[in-house]
Fold this sequence. Notes:
The protein is α/β, with parallel strands linked by helices. It has one domain: CNF1/YfiH-like putative cysteine hydrolases (4-Layer Sandwich), CATH 3.60.140.10. It has six helices and 14 strands. The strands form three sheets. It has a six-stranded mixed sheet with strand order 1-2-14-7-3-5, with no helix packed on it. The protein is globular and about 50 Å long. About 40% of the residues are buried. Zinc ion binds next to loops.
Amino acid sequence: MPSNTHSTEMIFYSSAQSPLFSDLPITFYVSSRYGGHSPKPYDSLNLAYHTHDSPTSVTSNRTKLCNALFPQSPLLWLNQTHSDHIIEFNDLSSLPLDGLIGSGDALICAQKHIACMVMVADCNPILVYNPRQKIFALIHAGRAGVCNAILTKTITKLLNTYHSAAKDLLIFIGPSIRKCCYAISPKLAKDFPSYALQAPPNTIVHTNTQNPHLDLIALLSLQLSALKIPPEHIQIHPACSCCSKDLFSYRRDGLTGRFALLVMQT
Ligand SMILES: [Zn+2]
């Protein structure tokens, strides 16, 4: 955890608390919605320009958070588009001043002391780390990303291009909307298995309420299992973003900010 006591309210969860990651040369944080400068409905630590919040507020929020967590390091981020596009960052000479390294929803980085983030408000923020090779991937996976198998495609790239071994990979899935809150229309529930490759039967949870609920964690877990990631290498944070008032939730609030999963190798 950051030493500055004023910064702790900005952190919802960190790798220091993780049974899988606490002893490894990688640090991650899930930001909270507190301690920033944005007014309602983005109050207050909104980290995303792709909202209608003032860019000045977002910049000062990012600066405050990064000064507390990664004071010496640049912050890389993506123009997230709910795609399955993967960006590989290996060339330090191409580091843009504002940290924006392109449009896509997964980032592969082998550099130390470069902070990277994905922003979410119900979508899944996912870290894939290979401590043996000192390389990580950071992924933004909402319903479209999960159904387009961005997690599978990113891990497959690590396996094929970087020659990672599945047994070496560690996974952290951060807070996201869970089956308790993710009601979908009956039509989407009916169509879902046909457009989500290999959707397991338990992806759609039928409840007593009018609409069925979607369990993207079940689908992500199936994708990881198919890739032979050891179950003991997978940590799924239990928090539902829509249930937790400490996190931004698009489903709950509509117009709202974004929290982030921020990662840096040390
Ligand atoms: Zn919930």
